[in-house]
Amino acid sequence: MYNFSVPTFVPPTSNEVTSVLPETDGIALFLFRFYAPQARGKNVFKLNDGTYVEDDPAEFDTIVKTYHGGHIHEITAQEASDLTAAGYGAYIS
Questions:
Q1: Would you kindly state where each structural domain of the chain is located, as residue ranges?
Q2: DSSP letter, residue 86
Q3: How many whole angstroms separate alpha carbon 87 and alpha carbon 93?
Q4: What contacts 11, CB < 8 A, 6 or more positions away?
């Protein structure tokens, strides 16, 4: 049987707790302390100079491709190679 598997990239995540609004008080504030951190996907941007960044670039015209956090992206072998060289190899399967 043929194996037609394509490499996939899942951008990294960070565990963050949503912030509490300053006007929150009473039972809402009391219950919020039991709220566990949740995984939040980070966007990875490929810039036109071939670099990859996770922070929003100052100029959006420099973005060539966006890998949205929390999603599974099918990528080419060249993209897999570039992402691995940029330090994202652990997120490629």
A1: 8-91
A2: I
A3: 14
A4: 41, 42, 43, 44, 67, 68, 69, 70, 71, 73, 88, 91
User: Which strand (E) or helix (H) includes residue 29?
Assistant: helix 27-32
Q: Are 73 and 46 in contact (CB under 8 A)?
A: no
Give dist(CA 56, CA 22) in Å, integer: 26
Digit-by-digit pLDDT tens for the chain (93 residues) are 545 688 999 999 988 766 665 566 677 777 776 777 778 899 999 999 999 999 998 899 999 999 999 999 999 999 999 999 999 999 999
| pTM metric for this prediction | 0.76
User: Is residue 39 within 8 Å of residue 45, measured between CB atoms?
Assistant: no
Residues 6+ apart with CB under 8 A from 73: 8, 9, 10, 11, 67
